[in-house]
Amino acid sequence: MKAPSFAYARPRALAEALELLARHGEAARVLAGGQSLIPSLNMRLSAPALLVDINGLAELKGIKAGKDTIRIGALTTHTEIERSEAVRQHLPLLAEAVRHVAHPAIRNRGTIGGSLALADPAAEYPACVLALDATLVVTGGKGDRSVKAADFFKGLFETALRPGELLAAVEFRMPGKDERSAFFELARRHGDYAIVGLAAFAGNGTKRFAYFGAADRAVLAHNAAKAKDLDSAKTALAKDLRPPADLYHSSETKLHLARVLLERAWTRL
Ligand SMILES: Cc1cc2nc3c(=O)[nH]c(=O)nc-3n(C[C@H](O)[C@H](O)[C@H](O)COP(=O)(O)OP(=O)(O)OC[C@H]3O[C@@H](n4cnc5c(N)ncnc54)[C@H](O)[C@@H]3O)c2cc1C
Fold first, then answer.
1. Burial tier of 20 (Cβ tally within 10 Å: 0-12, 13-18, 19+)
2. What is the total count of domains within the chain?
3. Which residue range forms the structural domain that includes residue 64?
4. Atom of ligand 1 nearest to the CA of 36
5. Residue 1 placed within a domain
């Protein structure tokens, strides 16, 4: 099918993009890599009156490693993340995760901002930003605001972004010496969305287990993270997750798979 007709704007400055979003409200939609939005238009799952193409906004692009933080602009593509030396060095969890995001053709155009703003419950990045306790930088008519990853994902394809706002960047703390991470995903084929996946972190006396494909959004398994040993963590996981069944897997199967991944991550960490 073809997309319903829409108006198209390609602003050259962030202020212009924000003005368009404020003026058109719910009728406007941001276009980044288009790898999720365009298929959804073609399938007529959505019909915005205006697409605001943000690809001309240089300030939303690139990876900057500072002294204390590493900042990834919302328009940075999956391929740029995959090829980044700074990501490999400082964010090994993200470097592992990105190889599971779709296929090269999609990774060449899809962006980290698009993935986080979409908040697909089976996507890899939302779990990574939860595991690494990252901060999302949101910009709008009233300026920037920072939202902790734990407060950003509100439900199925639902985030803390308000009408008229854009996701500008995501910021990660530079990792300390004793910090470790692990990433595991079960999918029918490499590059497919996950059946269940886990982004895990340990450091500073804290553990974080962020699951994807196991709820209506990426979620932190708080009870499992507090457990003293693996067996108690696996038992506690039932309090954290009640995965919705999909076409092929019952809720019980998904919980079992989540425990399999927990064991792998626990052992690795
Ligand atoms: C066949 C296929 C397989 C895929 N497999 C996977 C997979 O395994 N894992 C995975 O994670 N993803 C997968 N994807 C999705 C892909 O990663 C997309 O690139 C990503 O989800 C959306 O990024 P985008 O830049 O293409 O966003 P777009 O499609 O342009 O936009 C997606 C949504 O986010 C909004 N948006 C985009 N950028 C911003 C911003 N900066 N601020 C506010 N709102 C914004 C848009 O308005 C839209 O609602 C797959 C896609 C396809 C087509």
1. middle
2. 3
3. 58-173
4. 29
5. no
